[in-house]
C-alpha cells in the first residue's frame, strides 16, 4: 500500500495574484470586423424564398389567439424605451440584473395601466425573453 504524504504548498499566492492583476489582456474585440454582411445575406435568402411568412405564422401560431395577443402586447411594449435591446449585450451582470428588475416592474405597471389579464402578462414575459424576478410569484399567485 502506497502512502501519500501531504506536501506544503510552495506557491506564493500573493505573488501570483499581483502578477495576474498587472498583466491585463488587452481587449481585441473592439477591432474585429465581420467577414460577411450577415444582414444582407439573410435578407437575400429571405427575398429568394417562396415561403409565405404570414400564412405560415397563421398556420403554426393562430390557436388560442396567440398572434392577436402578441400584436396587442407588442404594440404596447415597443413604445417603451426600457424594452429596447440594442445595447443589452454590452451590459455587465449587475447592470443586466437591474435592467431585468426594471423591466419586470414596468410590466407590472403596464398590466395595471392596460388592464391585461394573466395571458397578456405571459405574452409580455414571452416577448421580453428574460427570467423575471416576479416569475415565481406570478406563476403561483397570478
What does this structure look like?
It is a single chain. This protein is mostly helical and 142 residues long. The protein has a domain at 65-142: Orthogonal Bundle (Butyryl-Coa Dehydrogenase, subunit A, domain 1). Helices cover 58% and strands 0% of the residues. It has seven helices and no strands. It has helices at 13-22, 38-48, 53-61, 66-77, 93-114, 118-128, 135-141. 6% of the residues are buried.
Q: What's the rounded overall pLDDT mean?
A: 83
Q: Which residues form runs of ≥5 with pLDDT under 50?
A: none
Q: Any idea what the radius of gyration is?
A: 25 Å
The helix fraction, in percent, is 55-70%
Quickly give the structural class: mainly alpha
> Would you count the extended β strands for me?
0
Per DSSP, the total helix count is: 7
Q: Which range does the strand content fall in?
A: under 5%
CATH class of the domain at 65-142: Mainly Alpha
Report, as a whole number of angstroms, the end-to-end distance: 63 Å
CATH architectural category of the domain at 65-142: Orthogonal Bundle
SSE topology:
Blueprint: H1 13-22, H2 38-48, H3 53-61, H4 66-77, H5 93-114, H6 118-128, H7 135-141
Helix pairs in contact: 4-6, 5-6
Brief summary:
The protein is an all-alpha fold and 142 residues long.
Write out key terms for the chains shown:
Butyryl-Coa Dehydrogenase, subunit A, domain 1
Amino acid at each position: 500500500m502506497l502512502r501519500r504524504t501531504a506536501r506544503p504548498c510552495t506557491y506564493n499566492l500573493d505573488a501570483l495574484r499581483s502578477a495576474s492583476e498587472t498583466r491585463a489582456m488587452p481587449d481585441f474585440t473592439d477591432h474585429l470586423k465581420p467577414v460577411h454582411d450577415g444582414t444582407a445575406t439573410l435578407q437575400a435568402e429571405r427575398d429568394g424564398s417562396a415561403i409565405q411568412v404570414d400564412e405560415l405564422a397563421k398556420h403554426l401560431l393562430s390557436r388560442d389567439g396567440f398572434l392577436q395577443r402578441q400584436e396587442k402586447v407588442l404594440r404596447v411594449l415597443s413604445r417603451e424605451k426600457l424594452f429596447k435591446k440594442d445595447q443589452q449585450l454590452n451590459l455587465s451582470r449587475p447592470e443586466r440584473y437591474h435592467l431585468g428588475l426594471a423591466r419586470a416592474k414596468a410590466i407590472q405597471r403596464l398590466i395595471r395601466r392596460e388592464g391585461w389579464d394573466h395571458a397578456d402578462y405571459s405574452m409580455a414575459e414571452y416577448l421580453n425573453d428574460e427570467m423575471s424576478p416576479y416569475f415565481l410569484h406570478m406563476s403561483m399567485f397570478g
